[in-house]
Design a protein that fits this description.
Blueprint lengths: L4 H27 L8 H18 L4 H8 L8 H16 L7 H7 L3
Helix pairs in contact: 1-2, 1-3, 1-4
């Protein structure tokens, strides 16, 4: 990851929390008795979040990780952090402000 030593450390902490949050959200989703992997929309939901997680793990600029997810509470329970991550995606997918290529890759991962 590129950035200052301090940025990289902060970004890696954020990355860990965000990935754990996505894992918690997916675990809750698939453990729901109504979950049906053969349902195309449900399968697509899993695929989208797995792609987003992969893009987050592939992030190579600390600034991108910090700018996108700095508001996710580091001390939140993973499922609560997942809701914060969902809000981040909702906000950034509706924004028209300029983003870096790295931020676009994370937000648009499907």
């Amino acid at each position: 990851m590129n950035g200052t030593e301090k940025q990289i450390a902060w970004a890696q902490d954020i990355q860990k929390v965000v990935v754990e949050a996505i894992d918690a959200g997916l675990a809750k989703f698939v453990s729901d008795p109504r979950f049906d992997r053969s349902n195309p929309k449900m399968a697509q939901t899993i695929d989208v979040w797995e792609a987003r997680k992969a893009a987050i793990l592939d992030c190579n600029r600390a600034k991108d990780m910090i700018d996108l997810f700095k508001d996710v509470r580091m001390d939140a329970a993973p499922i609560d952090a997942f809701m914060q991550v969902c809000r981040t995606y909702k906000v950034y997918t509706t924004m028209v402000s300029p983003m870096t290529d790295g931020q676009m890759a994370i937000i648009n991962a499907r």
